[in-house]
Predict the structure.
Amino acid sequence: MEDLLLDSRTGPQFKLSDEQEMLVRMTRDFVADNIIPVAAEYDEAAKFPEEIFHKARELGIVNMLVPEAYGGVGATAFEEALVSEELGYGCTGISSSLGVNSLAVLPILIAGNDEQKAYWLGQRVTEMGHFVSYGVTEADAGSNVAGIQTRAERRGSSYLINGSKTFITNASHADFFTIFAKTDPDAGHRGMTCFIVDRESPGLSIGKKFDKLGQRASDTAEIVFENVEVPEENIVGEVGQGFYIAMKVFDHSRPGVAAAAVGLQRRALDECVKFAAEREAFGVPIYQHQAVGHKIADMAINYEAARLLTWQAAWQVDQGIFNPRVPAIAKAFAADMATKAAVDAVQVFGGYGYMKEFPVEKLLRDVKIFQIYEGTSEIQRNIIVRELFRGA
């Protein structure tokens, strides 16, 4: 099958390059050998996939955005999206654990200085294989990023951080964090600053670990800061630039999240095609009943559309084009259509779809968070409306 592709280097094409095809095949083989066989086990036990992470790191399919100058592969956003789809196909819980390093290092890639990149990316991430977590969300500040309450007060050449973050992916295992805190509480969104915080900093502790509905192989926990001292050289960008860095992070990270949702869509589609060809009702395979066949056809339509939107958003990142509407559309559509695909997959499977021994039950539990994290589907629509009516 030949695919329409917005290539990150040459523009619209109708097939992947040889290198991209090789990357997809390599990741698909990795998923088939290392993720799909254990996904149910990791989900049931809420087991963190540390061994899988390090295997993927050795293969070069995590930490993909780290430039070659710092020991990474220097992949494009589009190439990362290709990998994210394949990992999402296998298990979006495991893929979240594997992918959050890319999210957490984005502030450093976007606004960090050379010394920060050399140490935190070159030594800590690529050489030492450390985990990184990204800390914005708080108990009273989810969609409203500017509403965070965590404080960072200057003390000489350092800052003391107090507060907490919640729903932080990989928090229990992270070796350092990129954290957003208010350095000027009276300045609104202009009073936010981004810091790199080492796990071993006195006063930093990991709080409650959450027991989740889905994506259970992904660790999610609280971080608590009690007079955590952070040197000023750990400020990413400038004091007061945190909100703008966070918004740029979203534009870079949403295509990857959308791609994982696209991967889950494709898994739902494949499972339904296989089941509907084998399962019979009224003397024929159930796909021959229009009520079932059309559900599966809609899955295919929405999968292809979501994938193209995701590719467009990733291509835009690689071109340095700043247009928040595009990643918002991609993320909202991919999340919503993945959710529809998972719901319809359970319906296609009927009673079997409700049972844990069949894979679509897990897809339904895993998918819902796509409409929530990295900006809810409602927030994506707010962004789209804002951009459509800008200047009106």
